[in-house]
Amino acid sequence: MTPSANLHFVTLLGSLRCASLNAAIARSLPQLAPEGVSISALGSIADFPHYSQDVQDKGFPPAVLNMAEQIQAADGVIIVTPEYNYSIPGVLKNAIDWLSRVTPQPFAKKPVAIQTASPGQIGGARAQYHLRQSLVFLDAFVLNKPEAMIGLATSKIDPQTLALTDEPTREFLTRQISALADLARTLQR
Predict the structure, then answer these.
(1) How is 104-145 classified by DSSP, letter by letter?
(2) According to a count of CB atoms within 10 Å of the terminal CB, is the N or C end of the chain lower?
């Protein structure tokens, strides 16, 4: 693949709340993508049942297989998630548990960027640490830098429109997406 080839990334949202700060960040990403990169949202992880081997033995739920196919077809994944109790939300862990059982493994050798947003100053750093641990098991290539931990996010998102309005944050996220694109192109060579 040539360095100028177009790339397509998908976003995996770790929040179920439509008005969440992280949903606002995820919705902003298609407009922040640099030239040559498109971004679209995956379906909701709310459509995944609680993981159970008994359920899996009856067949993978269509929502799981659909998401796995979209991840497999994408050039990279951007996971946008809040931090709950110093870790990732249970619904995101459940989705990862389901996706980890799909063959071929959709995250294997896939470039992944992580973004977290929080009303607090740390911006979700502890969630990113735990998420990275799960992604190691899935053999994903997690982008190391720049890390996107958006602290004080309530001051950066318009409460009425839920649009990301903070220009420095918008520019930073564009730089992170560009770095993910560089990683994706490197891995495709």
Answers:
(1) S-TTTT-EEEEEEE-SSSS-SHHHHHHHHHHHHHTT-EE--S
(2) C
Six token digits for residue 28: 């902003």
Q: Is 71 helix (H, G, I), strand (E, B) or coil?
A: helix
* 134 contact partners, CB below 8 Å, separation of at least 6: 88, 93, 96, 100
Which tens digits make up the pLDDT trace of 116-166? 999 999 999 999 999 999 999 999 999 999 999 999 999 999 999 999 999
Beta carbons within 8 Å of 38's beta carbon, 6+ residues apart: 6, 7, 8, 9, 30
Q: Which residue has the tokens 């109790």?
A: 85
**What b/e readout covers 64-94, taking b as 16+ CB neighbours within 10 angstroms?**
beebbebbeebbbbbbbbbbbeeebbebbbe
